[in-house]
Specification:
One of its GO terms (molecular function) is hydrolase activity. The protein is an alpha/beta fold. About 25% of the residues lie in helices and about 30% in strands. The protein has one domain: Nucleoside Triphosphate Pyrophosphohydrolase, CATH 3.90.79.
């Protein structure tokens, strides 16, 4: 018996049903931005206690690398060149949030001056250049573990992390 070809309308209806039923996972894209002294940029956020790397939630239909560039420009008023993918980090549920994927990108070295008057005040209270050692004093535990895991990162490689820990995969 010959299989009936499905119409484009039928195919789109089937996909719409699957899209409505399949799980959705939050994606986060952040950038590792350093200054000439080797310090990394952390943002003091207006809506939570912990500082965090610059970036944000990926909008539907938006590539994670574009998210990093957009968020840094919108929130800090600077334009960065997004480089390679440093790590993909699966984060388990935390403080009421569902699990998520975090994409960490290399944003290179920023040689300019940060201008707090350009910060998006509803999100960024301040921004700080910190050493890798002092970052753990300000960030969430999962961010501190992730920063430890990527400490020896080399360009051209990508780490896979689960709950900010290397898996050996």
């Amino acid at each position: 018996m010959a299989r009936r070809e499905e119409t484009e309308a039928e195919r789109l209806r089937r996909i719409a049903i699957l899209n409505a039923r399949l799980p959705k996972k939050r994606n986060i894209a952040q950038g590792l931005l350093r200054n000439s002294a080797g310090e990394m940029l952390l943002c003091e956020l207006s809506y939570k206690q912990e500082w965090d790397l610059p970036g944000g939630v990926v909008d539907p239909g938006e590539p994670p690398a574009a998210t990093v560039a957009r968020e840094i420009e919108e929130e800090l008023g600077i334009v960065v060149e997004v480089g390679g993918l440093v790590a993909v980090n699966w984060l388990p549920p935390w403080r009421g949030w569902d699990d998520a994927h975090l994409f960490l990108f290399d944003c290179g070295v920023f040689g300019g001056e940060l201008d707090p008057s350009r910060f998006l005040a509803r999100e960024i209270a301040d921004a700080h250049w910190v050493t890798a050692t002092s970052a753990a004093d300000h960030v969430a535990p999962y961010t501190a573990r992730m920063l430890d895991a990527v400490e020896g990162w080399t360009a051209g490689s990508t780490l896979y992390l689960e709950n900010s820990e290397p898996t050996g995969r």
